Amino acid sequence: MRMRYGSTDVLHGVDLHAYRGEVLALLGPNGAGKTTTIEILEGFRKRSAGEVRVLGVDPDRGDEAWQARLGVVLQSWRDHGRWQVRELLAHLGRFYRPYGTAERQRPYDPDELVALVGLTDRANARIGTLSGGQRRRLDVAVGLVGKPDLLFLDEPTVGFDPQARQDFHELVRRLSDLEDTTILLTTHDLDEAEKLSDRILVLAGGRIVANGTAAELASQVSGQAEVRFSRGGESYVRSVQDPTAFLRELFADFTEDIADLEVRRASLADVYLTLVREFESGLRTEASQLSEVTV
Ligand SMILES: Nc1ncnc2c1ncn2[C@@H]1O[C@H](COP(=O)(O)OP(=O)(O)OP(=O)(O)O)[C@@H](O)[C@H]1O
């Protein structure tokens, strides 16, 4: 798919496919077009060109029944400051009731939902009095209220404390594993992407430049591993292509003397930065030329 704002092409050819129940993380530098991609998929923005199918439907033609199967968490929920948490969720939930099915009763029970996002003790608080992180939990609850088949999360954990982040990660895994919810999330937190997602997509310069698991991405960039050890009281660091072969030789030569051994593979952060740098310097072009999107 392509997207042009005025005379500027923001997305040149984005090709992606998500399977049911899969968690996809969309990474990319600021301004790469992640939010634009999500807005096109949820039918909020019209694409300039290309084929897009979301739950089998072109988002430009999605009706209410289709919308009811999507959950969206964009930027923070700033309105309705006078409403109470549980009251707002019960109110929004009513819109989804006609779209429930035998396998998927809609909406979530408001008390269950409040508990799911860890807001039970704030259920009767006015939204205007919530802290930043509590508000973000409410954003997630608003995205979930209709028990979506497909959930879009745009930087969902900004402002979360470590406990809230961990709780949220459990929630995402649970939605994917138990409810078979397909999830597309954007994040700048690479640990989060690695921990949460089944697959990672990197968007840079309007194209998907990488698509795979964290391990697959690592094997795409010329991977060096770092081996640290000490011998006879001295510390050593070696950058090697094949750490197993290096260690075999090292131990063949000095079995007794080696201590403090540590092997460090490229982290997702290293891989991501290398990919984006290679793309920006023209070393890497695009992962694919297709312009079809199915979610
Ligand atoms: N309505 C608009 N009109 C013109 N240009 C826009 C519009 N919305 C976004 N853009 C431009 O499109 C590009 C992609 O923006 P987008 O918000 O999709 O990026 P992003 O990857 O989500 O960035 P971030 O990581 O900063 O959230 C940016 O250069 C932005 O300035």
Automatic annotation (TrEMBL):
UniProt-listed Pfam families: ABC_tran
Membrane topology: Peripheral membrane protein
Keyword DNA-binding in record: no
CDD domains cross-referenced by the UniProt entry: ABC_DR_subfamily_A
Alphabetized UniProt keyword annotations: Antibiotic resistance, ATP-binding, Nucleotide-binding, Transport
InterPro entries xrefs: AAA+_ATPase, ABC_transporter-like_ATP-bd, ABC_transporter-like_CS, ABC_transporter_ATP-binding, P-loop_NTPase
Location of this chain's protein in the cell: Cell membrane
Domain ABC transporter: 1-230
UniProt-recorded Gene Ontology molecular function terms: ATP binding
Top-level taxon of origin: Bacteria
PANTHER family assigned: ABC TRANSPORTER ATP-BINDING PROTEIN
Record's protein name: ABC transporter ATP-binding protein
Organism: Fodinicola feengrottensis
Classification lineage: Bacteria, Bacillati, Actinomycetota, Actinomycetes, Mycobacteriales
